[in-house]
Design a protein that fits this description.
By secondary structure, the protein is of the alpha+beta class. Helices cover about 30% and strands about 20% of the residues. Strands 1, 2, 3, 4, 5 and 6 form a 6-stranded mixed sheet that branches.
Length: about 170
């Protein structure tokens, strides 16, 4: 078996939020309900701490979960792309004022509660390096998105799919 094509799996025109919307976006209310339903499937004391929708500088929904489930971090961010129903799990850290970086992780026990409604992105794919020239050659992003990627210079594919580009 050859190397996994993470770029081909995750990227598609429109995913960054800097071009036209190809179809109806994921629904915020459904995302909230899905987060609560996923937590009910886990054992332990689990809680949704907050939800946050996309804004002018961020192309994704976020939910911060407090988990009391063995094998999972105590706090996990659930990220949902605002254009496509691609969902991921992460921890966040700041790399300077206002520069939020995600460390993507796999959470199979939590992911089980989201299957069906969303495409669950693997941490391995999200952490794969972003290569703008290859992306352009393959037509995975449109011209406006490539210009934004060139400006922001994301290191990982996950920072394209879940971006904070204003």
């Amino acid at each position: 078996m050859g190397a996994r094509d993470a770029m081909g799996v995750l990227l598609r025109p429109g995913i960054t939020g800097f071009s036209g919307y190809p179809g109806p976006p994921p629904d915020a209310a459904t995302f909230r309900a899905s987060c609560h339903a996923a937590l009910r499937r886990l054992h332990g004391k689990n809680q949704v701490l907050w939800f946050d929708g996309p804004n002018a500088g961020r192309n994704h929904h976020r939910a911060l979960l407090r988990l009391g489930h063995a094998g999972l971090p105590s706090h996990v961010l659930v990220l949902l792309n605002e254009i496509f129903p691609i969902l991921a799990f992460a921890r966040a850290s700041e790399d300077g004022p206002g520069n939020l970086l995600y460390t993507f992780l796999d959470a199979p026990a939590l992911a089980a509660g989201f299957h069906g409604a969303y495409e669950i992105a693997a941490a391995e794919d999200l952490q794969a390096p972003f290569d703008g020239k290859t992306c352009e050659r393959r037509g995975l992003l449109d011209r406006d998105e490539l210009a934004q990627a060139s400006y922001w210079n994301p290191a990982q594919l996950g920072h394209v799919v879940f971006n904070h580009w204003d």
